[in-house]
Amino acid sequence: MIRKNPNLYEINTRVWIKRFAKGNENFSIADVPREYWLSLKSKGIDAVWLMGIWRTNEETIKKYCFEEGLTREYSKALKDWKEEDIIGSPYAIDSYKINPKLGSEQDLLKVKSTLNELGMNLILDFIPNHFSAASRLLKEKPEIFLTVEKRFYEEDPYTFFKPFEEEEKYFAHGRDPFFPAWQDTAQVNYYSEEARNFMISQLLQITKFADGVRCDMAMLPMNNVFGNTWGSALSDNSFTKPKEEFWKTAIEIVKNYRTDFLFIAEAYWDLEYDLQQLGFDYTYDKKLLDRLIAGDVDEIRAHLNAEESYRKKSVRFIENHDEQRAISSMGKKKSEAAAIITSTIEGLHLYYDGQFEGKKIKLPVQLGREPDEGTIECVAEFYNNLLDITNDDIFHDGFWFMRYPQPAGENDFTYKNLLAWSWRRLDEKRLIVVNFSNVQSRCRLQLELGEYPSSFKLWDLLNKTQYVRSTKEVEELGLYIELAPFAGHIFTY
After folding, report:
1. What gap in Å lies between CA 137 and CA 154, rounded to an integer?
2. pLDDT by residue (tens digit) across 11-21?
3. Among 1, 4, 94, which residue's Cα sits nearest to residue 314?
4. For the domain 7-139+183-393, what is the CATH code?
5. CATH number of 399-492
6. Assessment of whether the complete model's pTM goes beyond 0.70
């Protein structure tokens, strides 16, 4: 059982494994040294997400993975990329079988066993919306896909496709309603009972190999979203909206089978709360990332002050495989300040492989080779220190509450740039203050000092500095804080 407010580490598995394999084609995920997993455990990682573990269809690569937009992204990430470096999307899967290039089922079970033994969980992908456009399931289980009449294909051959020359069968590509269809995918039909039952069976199968799933674009199977996306195709086939939401049924069945199995939703469009109500343990908090990038402190403060149950079920992150690297989107100092924020609030804290080393390049998921960026040592030192601090039980079992900076002087409005909150656990206290602006800022903070002596010490764990303050002054005026741009304190006192 992972801790409250856990830390999740995402790995781009098909690229990452090459660092260890060094050209050995027989190398499997089970051969990754135990020391590597121990190093993650020592940083306070509670769960590892092996992104891109499932079998894909290589025959779709040439057909779908060399569009102009994609090749432009490949060149931006890896200037000397070659055709053989393109390995296809890990989100257009053939089936829920481990990719043979990564190992066998036994290898996957061995990794899970190692992680569990070290006190960590294994998270794998669940891609509810679609399979590969070349998936074997199109022949084996055609009834689970969204099929249409020929006229749909003739009117819109980008969204609909005919996978078999010998058969007059037409299917929909998977899609997000706000974007063109993903042509390397085939859409699952969530208005079909057969499809729902099949997808639940796949989830039950995954429980053998993992301790939880990160559910890709989890909003798409929701009844209203699915109906609005595929309205005419559904009505043409007389499909009607199911009475129950897929996720409510699926999560209840899986958790009845295994109560500790985690469901993590990639979620957008203000549907995070709805997905939490349907049973998700955690939902993406993309809105916080957007607000951190924009830098509006009032909006960030209001966001962090959301209802408690929502806060605790939010996935906090400043980068992942879909987002720009934090140093690139925010710069070094601002991204470090953002990391202090996302690492010391309630919820699940998601870190992406390469974040701790200061990587700057966002790698398209279709690319199978990464550039050699090296490590920015000062960034690595920052994260080692931050993760050591937040590994303490107080950040997982403690009580979190917001604090509100007050002016430090007349006509000094820089206090508005400061964010502050506390953790309390038994007699332990932590006070976090971050200047999330590009100007020197000051404030006063009220603290509850109770039976403290006439003077007391504050130890800044982040900057390894000690301060001595008058208890009377702090009680009467508040603790004086002055911080450089995008700097922070994590005090114990």
Report:
1. 24
2. 999 999 999 99
3. 4
4. 3.20.20.80
5. 2.60.40.1180
6. yes
